[in-house]
From TrEMBL:
GO function terms (MF aspect): hydrolase activity
Protein name per UniProt: Metallophosphoesterase
Span of domain Calcineurin-like phosphoesterase: 1-226
Pfam families listed in its UniProt record: Metallophos (PF00149)
Organism of provenance: Nonomuraea cavernae
InterPro entries cross-referenced by the UniProt entry: Calcineurin-like_PHP, Metallo-depent_PP-like
Length: 255
């Protein structure tokens, strides 16, 4: 059995269309949407609406952790648009989802990332796409568990939830062979992004579940340029499957 795993697609529909080539199935760990691109300031919904120069300024404030100033700047820009800002966001998000789900290979097993908007996915899923969040499914004789979204941060991305709600989803998954999450377990070297030079949030509940149940693999994304891509916790191989928008290549899992 060969499964390809991707995370942090961030708008890369063309590469996503090829991600399942040679595989029996695709697993996607979320973050399909590209709202703002830290590498190319001209890309993403923010730049489409306000231009690359404003995107660069906004990114600079967030990188400097001047979150109040970034939010104030964002509020001014959204107020300059005609109509409800939420309508502008949703229209652009829907356009990306339409392209991405049309490109998504089948069969595919998916969960949400922290920048995704779960309520919109149902409008674009095809027959071969299955979404799991706090649930498990058998793929090729192995039990895969899925936990989507992220924990609350100063970035206030769309699908951030409380530690308690996240832990409840981890508990609901139970014992599995492969634990698939968008965010990593709370291991510092897995959380540090060497380019952004910051620690992302990881899950203590996931770390505890790995220690307790010892799945064969724990797969995740979220941290685009991790200090350490993989480590072991007991018998569990913990793997960051890679920043798909940056690499364009899936992680391969075979058994």
């Amino acid at each position: 059995m060969r499964v390809h795993v991707v995370s942090d697609v961030h708008g890369s529909a063309e590469a996503l269309a090829r991600a399942g080539d040679g595989a029996d199935a695709l697993v996607c760990l979320g973050d399909l949407i590209l709202f703002i691109d830290y590498d190319d300031h001209a890309q993403g919904i923010f730049a489409d609406l306000f231009g690359a120069e404003r995107a660069a300024e906004f990114i600079g404030l967030r990188t400097a952790k001047r979150f109040d100033e970034a939010r104030a700047m964002s509020a001014r820009l959204w107020a300059s648009l005609d109509g409800d800002p939420r309508e502008h966001i949703e229209r652009n998000v829907r356009a990306q989802y339409a392209r991405l789900f049309a490109a998504m290979p089948e069969p595919a097993y998916l969960t949400y990332g922290n920048v995704d908007i779960p309520r919109l996915w149902g409008d674009y899923l095809r027959d071969g796409h299955q979404v799991f969040d706090g649930q498990s499914v058998e793929i090729g004789g192995l039990r895969f568990g899925f936990v989507g979204g992220g924990l609350k941060t100063e970035y206030r991305t769309p699908y951030e939830i409380s530690d308690e709600e996240y832990a409840a989803k981890v508990e609901a998954v139970g014992e599995v062979d492969v634990l698939c999450c968008h965010i990593p377990p709370a291991v510092p070297e897995l959380l540090y992004d060497v380019v952004a030079r910051r620690l992302e949030r990881g899950s203590e509940a996931t770390l505890e579940a790995i220690r307790r149940t010892q799945p064969r693999y724990a797969l995740f994304g979220h941290v685009h340029q991790p200090l350490v891509q993989r480590t072991r916790i007991g018998r569990t191989e913990c793997v960051n499957v890679g920043h798909f928008r940056g690499r364009g290549v899936p992680y391969v899992l075979e058994w």
